[in-house]
Amino acid sequence: MNNLLYIIAAVLVLFWTTGYFYYNAGSSIHALLVIAVLFILVQVIKEQNSIN
Predict the structure, then answer these.
(1) What pLDDT digit, counting tens, does each position of 1-52 carry?
(2) Could you tell me the pTM of the whole model?
(3) Could you write out the three-class secondary structure of the chain?
(4) Are 38 and 16 in contact (CB under 8 A)?
(5) How far apart are the first and last CA of the chain?
(6) Which of 14, 25, 34, 47 would be a feasible disulfide site paired with 29, CB 3.0-4.6 Å?
(7) CA distances from 4 to 9, 10, 19 (A)
(8) Whole-number Å distance between alpha carbons of 26 and 2
């Protein structure tokens, strides 16, 4: 499950960069970046809580 969140975040960042540089999708493409960052933050917080 831990690796799955990283994979989802990486795919979302990849889609964001593709959309940002190759397509003019407007501000909606930035939602993918926000979702990816949230996945990464949740994963980091979960790992820190499991260590303690």
Answers:
(1) 567 777 888 888 888 777 777 766 566 667 777 888 888 888 888 888 777 6
(2) 0.50
(3) CHHHHHHHHHHHHHHHHHHHHHCCCHHHHHHHHHHHHHHHHHHHHHHHHHHC
(4) no
(5) 19
(6) 25
(7) 9, 10, 22
(8) 31
Angle of helix 2-22 relative to helix 30-51, nearest 10 degrees? 160
Output the six-digit token pair for 42: 């949740």
The answer to whether 40 and 8 have CB atoms below 8 angstroms apart is no
d(Cα 19, Cα 33) in Å, to the nearest integer?
A: 11
- Provide the pLDDT for residue 34: 80
Q: Which two tokens stand for residue 26?
A: 């407007």
- The pLDDT assigned to 1 comes to 55
